[in-house]
Every structure is written in structure tokens, then in C-alpha cells.
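To: structure desk
From: M.T.
Subject: fold request, one chain
Message: Could you run this one when you get a chance? Sequence is below, nothing fancy, just the single chain.
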Amino acid sequence: MSVLANLKLVTSKRSPTASPVVVRRNKLANKIDQQIELCTAQKSGQTYAPKVLKTFINKDTGDRYTTEVTKRVKEWFFIDADGKLNLSIKYGAKTLNLNKKGANAIQVKDGDELIATLQSLKKAALSGELDEAIGEASSETRNAFSK
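Reply: Done. C-alpha cells follow.
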């Protein structure tokens, strides 16, 4: 008797795991988490260097090997010409516009307020408050590839 004859065969279609909007929210929330870790490490005088696995191919032999490398995390915060600490939210390489007037940075007093602001931004991203800005940045990136 055939093996397939003993199994229950059905017609099925895999449903998508999450909508693109939710995927974008989670991507931004993960990047905000990295910024919180970076700020916390800098505040305590340490360096934040997350490790990721990267696969390389040996050009001579064609063999693949995986090694652990440190991932570079760029700071979203900077000190402006007036000496004030500013925070820009990035989605990929694009800086998000935070309101209709074109504001693209948040001014904070110190590192503690910076961490608190990042935590509140994470909540805002997960609740959908930044969906319009994320969608705009995403469409700009998509349009840049279609030229």
C-alpha cells in the first residue's frame, strides 16, 4: 500500500503572518530597542556591540562558513550647534517626519530623558501613532528603487 494513501491530504493555503503595517511597526520598535540599549550602555560607560551571525563564502574553495560579527548601531541622537541634545527617528536610512510642519527631531535635556523618550516612542510605534510617517518613509524608499 502507498504511503500517501494512509495520509490525510487536503488543499490548503498559507495565510500571511502579519500585515505590512504590523511588520513595519515591529521593525521600528526593534530599532528603538537597540537605541535604548545603546543609550543605557553609554550612560554606564560601556560599549554596545550586538553580535550577529554572518555567512561568508570562501572564494577559493566555495565553502560556506558562518561566523559571529559585531553589528554597528548608529546613534539616532546628536548635539546640535546650540549644544542641545536632539533625537531623530530613523526608518532604514530615512529620517521620519514627526508632524505636518516637517519637524524631524525631538529635543531632550539629558540621557535620562533621552531613554524615557525612546521608551515612549516605542509605545507610540507599537500603538500605530507613527504609521503615517513610517509609510511615507517606506514609500520613498520603494520609489527610489523604481526609477
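Reply (cont.): Residues 63 and 132 are 44 Å apart (CA to CA). Let me know if you need anything else for the meeting.
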